[in-house]
Amino acid sequence: DAPITSEFTPWPPGLARAYRAAGYWRGEPFSAWLRALAGQFGPRPALLGHALGPGGQPGGWVTRTYADLDAAASGYAAALAARGLRAGDRVILHLPNSPDVFEVLLGLLRLGARPILALAAHRAAELTAFATQAHARALITGGHPDAQRAARAVQTAHPDTLVLTVGDPDAALPLTPADAAAWTEPAAQPGVSSQGAGDVALYQLSGGSTGTPKLIPRTHDDYLYSIRASAELCGLTPDTVFLAALPATHNFTLTSPGAFGTLHAGGTVVTAPGPAPDVCAALIERCGVTHVALVPSALLLWLRAPQFTPARPGSTLRVVQVGGAPLAPDVARQVPQRLGAALQQVFGMAEGLVNYVRPGSAGDVTYGTQGRPISPHDEILIVDDEDRPVPDGTPGHLLTRGPYTIRGYFRAPEHNARAFTPDGYYRTGDIVTRRPDGHLIVQGRHKDQINRGGEKIAAEEIEHALLGHPRVFQAALIGLPDPWLGERTCAVVQPRVDPDEHASQALPDACALTLELRRYLLEQGFAAFKLPDRVEVLPTLPRTPFGKVDKPALRARYAPTPALSP
Ligand code: J2J
To answer: 311-352 pLDDT, tens per residue?
Structure first.
């Protein structure tokens, strides 16, 4: 096992004091936050949706009030404690969208265990990597056969990791909430808080650009600040009904302002299994949904769906938030007319910084920018390749630090040295311009990551995996423009040549290799969204003068010519 190096990089004490003095960090952990919400909004509906059922299939429709949710959190905390889990334990949370996700998540937070927020699409490769890095004590998953298979693979690699299954009473270790009364808050020791709000509450996941996915430690103080400030900035109220259609534990869906922001305002969260327009249209009508968060690829589907276009008279939908990937201004402009709701652009990242277009902004801001930071204490630098600030309007690298942006990834000292400046700015990897009024426009990316419809793929992770295939000598994963997803992936492979057979050997057929490599990556346990959409074969990969694979050259070679693109 790797030695424990740096688990958490704190903010400098002077800044931490300033963030407390400004009222951003309130010293309140999630458990107390939930207790206060239950006191304030007790009988109001907090969660609606299909519970998780046996086999990972949707179970019965449930309505949970704030009081129910608080009780469920205590019940899960007690049940987890009965399984031997303790405050500080890291636990992988791997559940499909359902009210259960939030109940279990809040139960873990009440216990003081630290959830690692896996995506439901993750499989054995990702879950095992999290378990390995974090020495996870447990994996909480659903009964779907794919999830159970992935869980067994995690357990094979880490026999000590407990697998607990939600929604499936026949599972080996089913997880159901105990009686809330079974939970007693750990006695506060004088001078020591059992759950300091400055401690790590949970781990978000980085979209990443390296071979192993990085964990993002978020504290109670910093995460709750971003949630509260987001809810206020977006004007959420107890009448807000938020549809969680994207993966529930993704930073956008959970906190911008998302499900937690909605709970903070006393509103109602409705869970959808995914963003499919037919299912979501039915939920909007059934539950009176007012707000939804979408990635651009999902928005494109909604804009063309007969359920939404033309906009329904009397529809309750008021705000469609779009973020996670670039949104073309001409698509943005279609939202009010076609969906009958306002557009709000959101440009955020699990590492922290979130930018919003403020509600009611002028058209050029609403449709043509990705907003400005939440906090007056968010520091923004836009710099050239030598870290020198560029003037407004000139594209540059976006660097940021502030009251809810991390100072370091979990146990990744070498990567941290590259991903942060010596004075603590996070290098986002995004290329942006700033308007004189402070609004940011995302222009591109300077990180070896592919944004496939909002789902982030670290090229290196898949390149490494492909090298394990017997026919692959070198591999480069690139993104190519796609009208629906924004980008799709292409693996360019330099095949392994048998030295006995000489160079006269024909190159393998790209079509056959596509199927073979996709199957191989599935067998290796990668999430389906990471499988290359296309595979190309070259006798040698082009190199830069420094010997790195020349990805711009590969993109130019395989991208559709502009005249042919839609
Ligand atoms: C272009 N690129 C964007 C946007 C994110 C709110 C919203 C999104 C995320 C998210 C999030 C973009 N236009 N509007 O965590 O709280 C790309 C950038 C960014 C990366 C972060 C939130 N909004 N992006 O997408 O951690 O490249 O968070 O650095 O998944 O997505 O990805 P992620």
So the answer is: 888 899 999 999 999 999 999 999 999 999 999 999 999 999
Taking residues 425-431, report their average pLDDT.
98
Q: How far apart are the first and last CA of the chain?
A: 50
- Residue whose CA is closest, atom 19 of ligand 1? 349
Q: How far is the CA of 323 from the centre of ligand 1 (A)?
A: 6
Pick the closest to residue 246 from 197, 206, 220, 280 (CA basis): 280
User: Which residues have C-beta within 8 Å of that of residue 235, sequence separation ≥ 6?
Assistant: 359
ipTM summary value: 1.00
Please work out whether the CB of residue 323 comes within 6 Å of at least one atom of ligand 1: yes
Determine the atom of ligand 1 nearest the C-alpha atom of 454. 25
> What pLDDT does residue 508 have?
85
Distance from residue 69's CA to the centre of ligand 1 (Å): 29
252 lines ligand 1 (CB under 6 A): yes
Tokens 């980085």 — which residue?
A: 206
Spatial separation of the C-alpha atoms in residues 444 and 397, rounded to whole Å = 9
Sign of CA dihedral 536, 542, 547, 549: negative
Q: Ligand 1 centre and the CA of 90: distance in Å?
A: 25
pTM of the model: 0.96
